[in-house]
Design a protein that fits this description.
By secondary structure, the chain is α+β, with helices and mostly antiparallel strands. It has helices at residues 4-21, 24-31, 73-85, 105-111, 119-125, 129-138, and strands at residues 34-35, 39-44, 47-52, 58-61, 68-69, 142-143, 151-152. The strands form two sheets. Strands 1-2-3-4-5 form a five-stranded antiparallel sheet, with helices on one face. Strands 6-7 form a two-stranded antiparallel ribbon. The chain is globular. The N and C termini lie far apart (41 Å).
């Protein structure tokens, strides 16, 4: 059996290779990306990412001066899926639904119990709603009128 980390690396590599097959000029127009001959730039959660056009390798920066290689699975899949898998016939509905209401049993396991995707973040902000609000504002979020601390975060620039 292949170790879990190898599966993540394989998936990220597959996504990188698919990105290289994309019409990059079309992506630049569709997503209004900053680009030059060597890189595409994408804003993702208050960070700028450069994707090398010839290799698909990803680097991130906060200041556009210092860049750090970012080959993590989560970054790769977020960026490559956004650029390569968004479909013209899909649009935001403007309606909020919970992941649990999507009808897939795996969503329930992602959101519940000690292994939840939110457990670590929830523990780090437990009893510290002011700190959570500060992080949400730093990420460009704007407050929602629901929940104890509810913010809408702009994930990608539009």
């Amino acid at each position: 059996m292949t170790p879990k980390n190898d599966n993540y690396a394989t998936t990220a590599e597959t996504a990188r290779l698919l990105f290289l097959k994309e019409d990059q000029e079309k992506l630049i127009r569709k997503f209004h990306l900053e680009a030059d001959d060597k890189h595409l730039s994408v804003r993702f959660l208050d960070m700028t990412y450069q994707i090398e056009r010839s290799s698909g390798l990803i680097r991130r920066t906060e200041d556009r001066i210092t860049y750090t290689d970012d080959h993590t699975y989560h970054t790769a899949l977020a960026l490559y899926d956004y650029l390569c898998r968004s479909r013209e016939d899909r649009q935001l509905s403007g309606k909020w639904i919970s992941m649990l209401s999507m009808g897939h049993s795996f969503h329930g396991s992602l959101l519940e119990g000690e292994d939840s995707v939110f457990t670590t973040a929830a523990k780090s902000f437990s009893g510290r709603s002011g700190a959570l609000e500060a992080v949400c504002r730093r990420l460009g979020g704007y407050k929602m009128a629901v929940g104890d601390v509810g913010y809408i975060l702009p994930v990608f620039d539009e």
